[in-house]
């Protein structure tokens, strides 16, 4: 019985350790930020428009589809600023811009 418990503890430790791997580069940071945001707000991911390393981790601008419309050029998209820590965990997010697909910046 003691041996079984030790085996389970080791497996759990490996799983926990793999979840805590750091977001080593901009690609990993962008993926984690996009996954975290879409899980929270429920809007589909359109893309990532910026990634910046910070002292605490990463700041990522994630574009999502907020209101799908027909024709697609009238759909409303939004850009969210997402901050994740060194481990890739979401620290905070906020919407910084809302716009129609295909519209140019001012």
Automatic annotation (TrEMBL):
Residues 10-24 have a biased composition (Low complexity). Residues 1-34 are annotated as: Disordered. This is Gas vesicle protein.
């Amino acid at each position: 019985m003691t041996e079984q418990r030790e085996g389970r503890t080791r497996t759990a430790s490996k799983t926990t350790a793999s979840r805590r791997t750091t977001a080593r580069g901009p690609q990993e940071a962008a993926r984690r930020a996009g996954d975290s945001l879409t899980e929270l707000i429920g809007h589909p991911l359109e893309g990532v428009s910026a990634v910046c390393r910070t002292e605490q981790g990463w700041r990522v601008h994630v574009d999502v589809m907020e209101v799908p419309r027909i024709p697609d050029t009238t759909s409303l998209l939004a850009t969210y600023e997402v901050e994740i820590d060194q481990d890739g965990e979401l620290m905070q997010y906020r919407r910084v811009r809302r716009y129609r697909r295909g519209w140019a910046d001012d």
